[in-house]
UniProtKB/TrEMBL annotation:
The keyword Transcription applies. SUPFAM superfamilies: Homeodomain-like (SSF46689), Tetracyclin repressor-like, C-terminal domain (SSF48498). This is Transcriptional regulator, TetR family. Residues 7-67 form the HTH tetR-type domain. It comes from Amycolatopsis pretoriensis. It holds the Pfam family TetR_N.
């Protein structure tokens, strides 16, 4: 019973951290603010997450786990339609998208604790995107390769997320991504 209660408490802390990071950014987030959000003291929170970096790691890992649970596969095995579905899914969870966007942008600074995570994640995502596009090589614009197009596709996804966060009434990231696929010559379902 105690272990389950501890897991529930950890999960509620991570959810609260998502919210606070989305509102304030990583640097503006304190353990005290997260603790307050879940009704704990800072010392009580530190029983579960001894440092802010430990909490950040849990937030990032949890986001990846949610995607894996929802879609049941890794980036490397995604199909174009599954990726389009992931974009649709992200449109239903603006707080998660905002947290990810804020953290990924913050991580470009040298001393950011998530820099390594995002470096490794983008490396994996580029490899997965390259594999996905390889399955459509014959449909791609002449003179292009999956390796060339993978970082561009990721930039489109990230850029659409950012624009959508700034103006959801004007930017439809799901339709925008499907339009991009069409421009590549790929016809999603």
């Amino acid at each position: 019973m105690t272990r389950a209660r501890g897991a529930d408490r950890r999960a509620s802390i991570v959810r609260a951290a998502f919210e606070v990071i989305a509102e304030r950014g990583y640097r503006g987030t304190s353990l005290a603010a997260v603790a307050d959000r879940v009704g704990l003291t800072q010392q009580g929170l530190m029983h579960y997450f001894p440092t802010k970096e430990d909490l950040l790691t849990a937030v990032l890992e949890t986001r990846d786990e949610w995607d894996l649970l929802h879609f049941g596969h890794a980036e490397s095995s995604m199909t174009v339609n599954q990726l389009a579905d992931l974009v649709d899914y992200n449109a239903t969870r603006p707080g998660i998208v905002q947290t990810y966007t804020v953290l990924s942008a913050d991580s470009v600074t040298e001393d950011h604790p998530a820099r390594g995570y995002f470096h490794d994640r983008y490396e994996r995502v580029r490899a997965g995107m390259t594999q996905m596009l390889e399955r459509h090589r014959d449909e791609l614009p002449p003179g292009t390769t999956p390796e060339q197009l993978a970082p561009i596709a990721i930039a489109v996804l990230d850029g659409l997320q950012l624009q959508w966060l700034l103006d959801r009434s004007e930017v439809d990231m799901s339709a925008g991504f499907r339009t991009f696929l069409t421009l590549l010559g790929i016809k999603p379902d």
